[in-house]
Specification:
The protein is of the alpha/beta class. The protein has a seven-stranded mixed beta sheet with strand order 3-2-1-4-5-7-6, sandwiched between helices. A two-stranded parallel sheet has the order 8-11. Helix 10 packs parallel to helix 12. The chain starts with 5 loop residues before the first strand and ends with a helix.
């Protein structure tokens, strides 16, 4: 499926961005992240050179990354990545003084030295309002636009919802897409929509409904609290589930381990109606948790985060497993997450457990959407053909 176009992934994490761009036909020449568990997962699943390194050190000296890529600078078509967004995410308190907010500038230093033909930067929508630490009142979004234009990129910020492209999750993210050449930067064409309606797709019509939570994970719902499974126990129950299983015919199932919960927590989970939040609990079952919601099997999930205990399975009195959240993120079942399944509190940041790897990732299907659109811009293709080809590739199992 190679297109002859090359890509380098900065802040790769587990590899969702890389996986999607590889589906889109890019050759991943190198990926880098400073987390050991990210390296373990990435190298287990993706056939691309990986460099475990701190972006700050690479900003001072990108030579190790260039050596890892085994590529001349002029052969790098696209650099992708999302400098950590924890300082900006609505899933937690805003913290513009978080040092991770300033990793943007190290990222841009690397971009300046690599000088790829195109760049794609992903982050949360709130970056349009929250300042970067070292730039005073300058927001993250304005900083990206200003600094990348200084580097010679024509750039545009797009806000996309992953559910509009076949991911079973409402996950709104901004993508900064820039090119060194003076080309028009358009938006990818949505292929899915809610409530069974219709949406214009160029000159054709798209009538694909959103992929729901049930569409994504109902075949995995046999697992109760404190249980684990390493084999499928139900056949696929939707086209999406069949696609997630793909050619994974040996019946082996990865990362499907459910935590245990005490009697009161199980009662709390069972009491909630599907789609309800903590306000739907009686006083005796209330919790101090800031967020708690039971999945509605008929709708896409809300944004998958690094905090799995924020969500409850719609059928079982437990939180979702790593595999179920990976499905909601559109990682195929052959993709195995490595490292500890979970860790508590601040250790999540340093150890990057499996749940965090999933929650931090760019959904591969959405990454594929972006990758195909970038390729379209390079090759001057037809957006309608790109959207239709993307759907056909999923149906054929990529």
């Amino acid at each position: 499926m190679g297109s002859g176009l090359t890509c380098i992934d900065l802040f790769s994490g587990a590899g969702g961005f890389s996986l999607g761009f590889s589906w889109a036909g890019f050759d991943i020449h190198a990926a880098t992240d400073y987390q050991e568990t990210a390296k373990q997962t990435y190298t287990e699943n993706l056939d691309a050179p990986f460099l475990q390194a701190d972006i700050v050190s690479l900003a001072d000296n990108p030579a190790p990354l260039i050596e890892t890529a085994n590529s001349d600078l002029e052969n790098i078509d696209v650099a992708i990545g999302g400098p950590p967004c924890k300082g900006f995410s609505t899933a937690g308190a805003y913290n513009p003084s978080d040092y991770r907010s300033d990793l943007l500038y190290s990222y841009l230093d690397v971009i300046e030295q690599l000088s790829p033909k195109a760049i794609v930067i992903e982050n949360v929508p709130s970056v349009t309002a929250i300042p970067v630490q070292s730039s005073g009142e300058m927001t993250y979004a304005k900083s990206v636009l200003r600094e990348t234009r200084k580097l010679g990129y024509k750039i545009r910020m797009l806000e996309l919802d992953a559910a509009d492209f076949g991911v079973p999750q409402h996950r709104k993210r901004v993508f900064f897409i820039g090119y060194k050449s003076n080309v028009p930067i358009s938006e990818p064409i949505p292929t899915h929509l809610g409530d069974g309606g219709q949406q214009r797709l160029g000159e054709s019509m798209a009538n694909r409904s959103y992929i729901s939570v049930g569409d994504a994970i109902s075949d995995l719902a046999f697992l109760g609290p404190n249980e684990e499974a390493y084999r499928y126990q139900r056949p696929p129950e939707s086209d999406y589930q069949q696609w997630m299983r793909g050619n994974h015919d040996d019946n082996e199932l990865y990362n499907h381990v459910a935590p245990d919960h005490g009697p009161r927590v199980r009662e709390r989970f069972q009491t909630l109606d599907e789609g309800a939040g903590k306000d739907g609990l009686p006083p005796r079952l209330q919790t101090d948790k800031r967020a708690l919601q039971k999945y509605d099997r008929t709708k896409p999930a809300n944004t998958v985060t690094t905090l799995p205990e924020d969500f409850i399975h719609y059928e079982q009195p437990r939180i979702p497993t790593v595999r179920e959240l990976a499905r909601l993120q559109s990682f195929p079942d052959w993709f195995e997450f490595k490292g500890p399944r979970t860790t508590g509190g601040p250790q999540r940041i340093e150890s990057l457990p499996q749940y965090s790897q999933v929650g931090n990732a760019v959904p591969p299907i959405l990454a594929d959407v972006i990758g195909r659109h970038v390729k379209l811009t390079f090759q001057e293709g037809d957006p309608r053909e790109v959207a239709n080809a993307r759907l056909q590739s999923y149906e054929s199992g990529l």
